[in-house]
UniProtKB/TrEMBL annotation:
<protein>
    <recommendedName>
        <fullName>Isoprenyl transferase</fullName>
        <ecNumber>2.5.1.-</ecNumber>
    </recommendedName>
</protein>
<dbReference type="InterPro" id="IPR018520">
    <property type="entry name" value="UPP_synth-like_CS"/>
</dbReference>
<dbReference type="Pfam" id="PF01255">
    <property type="entry name" value="Prenyltransf"/>
</dbReference>
<keyword id="KW-0479">Metal-binding</keyword>
<comment type="similarity">
    <text>Belongs to the UPP synthase family. Z-FPP synthase subfamily.</text>
</comment>
<feature type="binding site">
    <location>
        <position position="84"/>
    </location>
    <ligand>
        <name>substrate</name>
    </ligand>
</feature>
<comment type="subunit">
    <text>Homodimer.</text>
</comment>
<feature type="binding site">
    <location>
        <position position="33"/>
    </location>
    <ligand>
        <name>Mg(2+)</name>
    </ligand>
</feature>
<feature type="binding site">
    <location>
        <begin position="34"/>
        <end position="37"/>
    </location>
    <ligand>
        <name>substrate</name>
    </ligand>
</feature>
<feature type="active site">
    <location>
        <position position="33"/>
    </location>
</feature>
<feature type="binding site">
    <location>
        <begin position="78"/>
        <end position="80"/>
    </location>
    <ligand>
        <name>substrate</name>
    </ligand>
</feature>
<comment type="function">
    <text>Catalyzes the condensation of isopentenyl diphosphate (IPP) with allylic pyrophosphates generating different type of terpenoids.</text>
</comment>
<feature type="binding site">
    <location>
        <position position="221"/>
    </location>
    <ligand>
        <name>Mg(2+)</name>
    </ligand>
</feature>
<keyword id="KW-0808">Transferase</keyword>
<dbReference type="InterPro" id="IPR001441">
    <property type="entry name" value="UPP_synth-like"/>
</dbReference>
<dbReference type="GO" id="GO:0016740">
    <property type="term" value="F:transferase activity"/>
</dbReference>
<feature type="active site" description="Proton acceptor">
    <location>
        <position position="81"/>
    </location>
</feature>
Length: 253
């Protein structure tokens, strides 16, 4: 074990040394997938998997801090997840409640919930608001916690907000149609004012977006890792950053 640990640390240092400081993504988004499958693989129940996945999040944020990442978005709960029956949803909400509270209480990170809060239980939505308010002045990594989130719902909400804003100004639909462009919609997204994700990581071997940051990820780079989220290691993260660093970002060209 001592030898394997030494080799792991040496490999980790080698990966860090291979990274270029000017090729570190500003915004990393992650789909933390595979918690339930990981639990089954180790003989645990679903709640055990959720807890293990939650406990990985502060460690992951620390890795991002070390490399100078500015923004992290973590996909915790989709709008589709909210359609599950209470028996399956309640344990997940309980674990998310715990980890968001711990992230906020640490005083290290600025918490920004993204998602449709009106779809969440009232007490849970209040908890998210409190976590955001008490970390608003934290001078640290900005952490978007995507809870009750759906990319299509976000775009619909953005358009709705845009229309309401212009309605209060007395703008007609015809007048708005003449000037409307993508930037107008972007200004009403949950992540407005933030850089779009440079790198999107998904664990567990699945290779799909699952309605995550559909608008913002138009020109993102993607990295898919076979490891289940609770097994995601620092070397897996560094490999993702290394892969990003050697890519030629063409932005659709």
């Amino acid at each position: 074990m001592a030898l394997s640990g030494l080799l792991y640390r040496l490999y980790q240092r080698r990966l860090i040394a291979s990274l270029s400081s000017d090729r570190i993504p500003r915004h990393v988004a992650v789909v933390i997938d595979g918690n339930r499958r990981w639990a089954r693989s180790v003989g645990g129940n679903v709640e055990y998997g959720y807890d293990a996945g939650a406990d990985k999040i502060p460690e992951f944020l620390g890795w991002c801090e070390e490399l100078g990442v500015d923004v992290v978005t973590i996909y915790m709960l989709s709008t589709d997840n909210l359609t599950r029956d209470e028996e399956h949803l309640a344990p997940l909400l309980s674990v998310i409640d715990r980890i968001v509270g711990e992230l906020a209480d640490s005083g290290r990170w600025r918490i920004h919930p993204v998602g449709a809060r009106d779809l969440l239980p009232e007490a849970f939505a209040h908890m998210l608001k409190g976590a955001e308010e008490r970390t608003a002045n934290v001078d640290g990594l900005l952490v978007n916690v995507a809870i009750g989130y759906g990319g299509r719902r976000e775009v619909a909400d953005a358009v709705r907000s845009l229309l309401q804003e212009h309605a209060t100004r007395g703008t007609t639909i015809e007048e708005l149609a003449e000037v409307l462009d993508v930037e107008h919609i972007a200004e009403h997204l949950y992540t407005r004012g933030q850089p779009d994700p440079d790198l999107v990581i998904r664990t567990s071997g699945e290779q799909r977006l699952s309605d995550f940051l559909l608008w913002q990820s138009a020109y993102s780079e993607f990295y898919f890792c076979e490891a289940f989220w609770p097994d995601f290691r620092k070397v897996d993260f560094l490999r993702a950053i290394r892969s990003y660093g050697v890519r030629n970002r063409r932005y659709g060209l």
